[in-house]
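To: structure desk
From: M.T.
Subject: fold request, one chain
Message: Could you run this one when you get a chance? Sequence is below, nothing fancy, just the single chain.
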Amino acid sequence: MEKIFKEFNSNLQQFTDMLKTIVTSCDEKTSKQFSDRYFELNQESIVNLMDLAEDLATCKEFFNGNPEMELSPLS
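Reply: Done. Structure tokens follow.
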């Protein structure tokens, strides 16, 4: 059980670090929203991170299952 907990914490930290890297290129308002919602050290932020990871996994499954769909790049 301890190994699973360590792996979970490690993966959650990696996900958080990746998000922080992405957010550095965002405007200040967006950066603050992410910081407040996902990067605080509390249970609510962890729940929010888990929900975001699940949402992104669902998007990945959708786009992998529908390769004809294309995302237009953000400008």
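Reply (cont.): Residues 45 and 51 are 10 Å apart (CA to CA). Let me know if you need anything else for the meeting.
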